[in-house]
Amino acid sequence: MKRIPLLVTLTLAALSSAQAACSLNMLVWEGYTDKSFVTQFEKESGCKVTATYAGSSDEMFAKFKAGGGKTYDLVSPSGDATGRIYKAGVVQPIDVSKLKNYSSVFPNLKSGRWNTFDGKLYGVSFSWGPNILVYSKKDISSAPKSWNELFDKKYAGKISLPDNPITIADIALWMGKKNPYDLTDADLAQVKAKLLELKPNIRKFWATAGELAQLFQSGEIVAAHAWPLTAVDLGKAGFKVGVARPKEGLTGWTDSWMISKSTKNLEGAYKWIDFMLGKEGQKGMIGVTGYSGGTALGAQAVGAVKAKELFMDNPQSLAGIKMWEIPANYDKWVKLWNEVKGE
Predict the structure, then answer these.
(1) d(Cα 336, Cα 186) in Å, to the nearest integer?
(2) Contact of 76 with 256, CB cutoff 8 Å
(3) Is 89 strand, coil or helix?
(4) How many CB atoms lie within 10 A of CB 219?
(5) pLDDT mean across residues, the chain
(6) Please, which residues bridge with residue 134 across strands?
(7) Residue 108 C-alpha from the chain's centroid
(8) Which of 239, 181, 196 minimizes the C-alpha distance to 214?
(9) Average pLDDT estimate for 123-151
(10) Dist CA 157 CA 198 (whole Å)
(11) Domains and CATH numbers, the chain
């Protein structure tokens, strides 16, 4: 029997021990911890990654808060949940000096209202997307110039909106509200009336990108308020799809890495965030999810054509997008949304 030298044995044992000591438990959106790129991180860092998926922002917030921040080391919430997680007191401020790739984050994604609280950064944006108007070129000959075109009676039962209370911000934006996340009771009443006006045209409130793509392919809908991912997937499937950025403007979402204040693997958490800001992490995440990356390094990694397709070629294009943030009266938003769906 071949003997393994004692030095090699000790080295392997040491590596195994180090990896066991660095174990990162994360609560994430599906695709953010795919093995296609996580394996490389684990080899480079010696940290083992374990992930739990969340199906909605409300679920992510509830799960992370339930453990008092002790169950997970990292969480990847969207801007409609970051504020709630901060207020729950379960995350710690980010020290950007520990992130060598932070300088590559697009300027408009740094220190955003969605992850900066009381003057301190609590999250690092790494992935984002605009909420655009996606339409069937077979049924709509030219790109709609206004969101209000969706209200046309010829589209009765032919459009779809996301099943998410934060969509209220989009309606408010279409109505000309400058800050669609700061709505009074009177504003919300106006938005509700507008949503009820639109409701006869809504075939379904979609929950997943896959579900929305199926609605297009089956011919049930001809237009939707959607993510670029849907347009990309439909295009790959040979569906004649168009994308519009109506004149009233767009909302958008950003996902941020936040670190539990109770993590026992702080160094590993920073290694993970830095990896996800770098070329390999960005390229891997973009390849799996189809979302837009948040760094110049990511744009370089995917190439000029893909970067343009994902709105990553010109960081200034993010300037006019109203990124998700949690409203102070969010409970009223949820109540309004459920009332509209129930009527």
Answers:
(1) 12
(2) yes
(3) coil
(4) 11
(5) 91
(6) 224, 243
(7) 15
(8) 239
(9) 96
(10) 10
(11) 20-128+254-312 (3.40.190.10), 132-249+326-342 (3.40.190.10)
C-beta of residue 181 within 8 angstroms of C-beta of residue 323: no
DSSP SS3 for 183: coil
pTM of the model: 0.79
- pLDDT of amino acid 16: 45
Please give the pLDDT value at position 20: 52
Do residues 104 and 275 touch, judged by C-beta distance below 8 A?
no
Tokens of 227: 């993510």
Separation CA 234–CA 322 (nearest Å) = 25
Contacts of residues 339-343 at CB distance under 8 Å and 24 or more positions apart, as own/partner, are 339/192, 340/192, 340/195, 340/196, 340/199, 341/163, 341/205, 343/196, 343/199
CA 341, CA 253: separation in Å to the nearest integer?
23
What does each C-alpha distance from 341 to 158, 195, 334 come to in angstroms?
16, 9, 11
Tell me what pLDDT residue 43 has.
Answer: 97
pLDDT tens-digit series, residues 258-267: 999 999 999 9
- For residue 200, give every residue at least 6 positions away whose Cβ sits within 8 Å of its Cβ, in sequence order, or none: 153, 156, 157
The tens digit of pLDDT for each residue in 206-254 reads 988 889 999 999 999 999 999 877 887 899 899 999 999 999 999 999 9
Higher pLDDT, 173 or 231: 173
For residue 250, the Cα-to-chain-centroid distance in whole angstroms is 15
Confidence band, pLDDT 50/70/90 cuts, at residue 151: very high
- Residue tagged 């998926």 (tokens): 53
Cα–Cα distance measured from residue 26 to residue 49, given in angstroms and rounded to the nearest whole number: 7
